[in-house]
Amino acid sequence: MRLSGIRLEHKKNTASSQSVPAPIPKTVRIAMQQCAGAACDVLVQKGDKVLVGQKIGDSGKYMSVPVHSSVSGTVTGISELLQVSGRVCKCVDIETDGEQKVIGGIEPPVVSDRESFCDAVRNSGCCGLGGAGFPTHVKFGYDDKKFSVDTLVINAAECEPYLTGDHREMIENTDSIFDGIASIKKYLGTENVFIGIENNKPDAIEKMTKAAAERDSSVKVVALKAKYPQGAEKVIVYNLTGRVVREGKIPADVGVIVINVSTCGFIGDYMKTGMPLVKKRITVSGESVGTPCNVIAPIGISFEELLRFADCDMDKLGKVITGGPMMGIDIFDLTDPVCKTHSAILALPREKKESKNVLISYKTQTNCIRCGRCIQACPVGLMPTELEKAFDRKDRDMLKRLKVSLCMNCGSCSYVCPAKRDLAEKNQLAKALLRT
Ligand code: SF4
Ligand code: SF4
Fold this sequence. Notes:
The relative contact order is 0.15. Residues 353-360 have low confidence and may be disordered. This protein is an alpha/beta fold and 436 residues long. Helix 4 crosses helix 7 (261-273). It has three domains: 22-106 and 276-349, Ubiquitin-like (UB roll) (Roll); 114-273, 3-Layer(aba) Sandwich (Rossmann fold), CATH 3.40.50.11540; 373-435, no CATH class. It is 27% helix and 20% strand. A six-stranded mixed sheet has the order 1-14-13-17-15-16, with helices on both faces. Strands 2-8-7-4 form a four-stranded antiparallel sheet, with no helix packed on it. A four-stranded parallel sheet has the order 11-10-9-12, with helices on both faces. The chain has helices at 114-123, 136-140, 165-172, 174-188, 202-215, 233-241, 261-273, 303-309, 373-377, 384-392, 396-401, 412-416, 423-435, and strands spanning 20-21, 27-31, 41-42, 49-50, 55-58, 67-68, 73-82, 88-96, 151-156, 192-198, 219-224, 256-260, 279-285, 293-298, 317-322, 329-330, 344-349. It binds iron/sulfur cluster (2 copies). One iron/sulfur cluster (SF4) binds at residues 377-380, 382, 384, 407-413, 423-424, 427.
């Protein structure tokens, strides 16, 4: 594996501000599809009273996690939400009563072994909070006859510009992260624990190193180079353990479980309180935002409410993205709700051509000049320019030979390309082509 990576301007202007709670909105829309698994069935109906922490959606499928109400109030209806995947999922619409009453029976789960730990993690509604949304209990419930897992990697790289939610998690919720690590070590038996943090977060590295010395000296806090995409799963596994996750394999194939640091912090909190996943730290930033901040937001609040809370200039709004500018997704409807997988909302101005930020400049595509920069930038050694040609010819065999399945959609190739070719985007289309 060749781990060149690219340097980005970080713009992490919310890194040193304490997270603030979002006001409880008048209404929330809670989506029934919030993880990379099956959608939930709705468990409530119009007119029902609901309480904070109440399960309002679940699925009989293993590859799914339940959904809980983030507010107390009354269900006003069941609506539909068009997701970026093109799929439509149901939403529970709730009018809040402002009281935030918690449902009875919220208490720490009773856990005695790996199976009951996985059950508890599923019941909590936990999925990867870094953005992937993979159900955490599925990751923890690996087949131990097939995989021999000995290492836990806590991904705290947070390598995308603007994003600081994981950074603040390490500063504000250090103890819970170590509680989460203790539970995972106990029930999964992972002897080695690495926490990988980019070296542009010295305060987080210091705090986590001190906590490791106090709580568990076997936990290794590692300062990683601030190079994108340091937080990509295969990249961080290699940089922390030296183990290579090959094409078509997962980290468990090389004995590693990877979880995001905020996911780990949530597990620590859940094991202490039993409160399921009903809120999320979201970075609200970008040039159109007047007061960039990290907001602890109830799941289901709209993007628009969070932008207004952060004094966004709605008149000058050009582009709104969930996630970072490299891998984030455009938001087309600001009334859409925040889900568990959202880590940030970036509001970028309309005057893109005048912006110095190349990440948001308009693209004027020209012919490939064969400079090779995309190949140098690719962290997994792909040839994006050749992949683009193969995709344009719909040459499936060549796409397979060029190993398009290894593309992690990091966007580095598109970012460095002087001809502004849509390289990363075409790789996503190419992977979809191979699936059909
Ligand atoms: S988007 Fe894919 S091809 Fe482009 S640099 Fe990233 S991994 Fe390589
Ligand atoms: S970076 Fe762009 S211009 Fe250069 S080789 Fe790749 S596709 Fe061609």
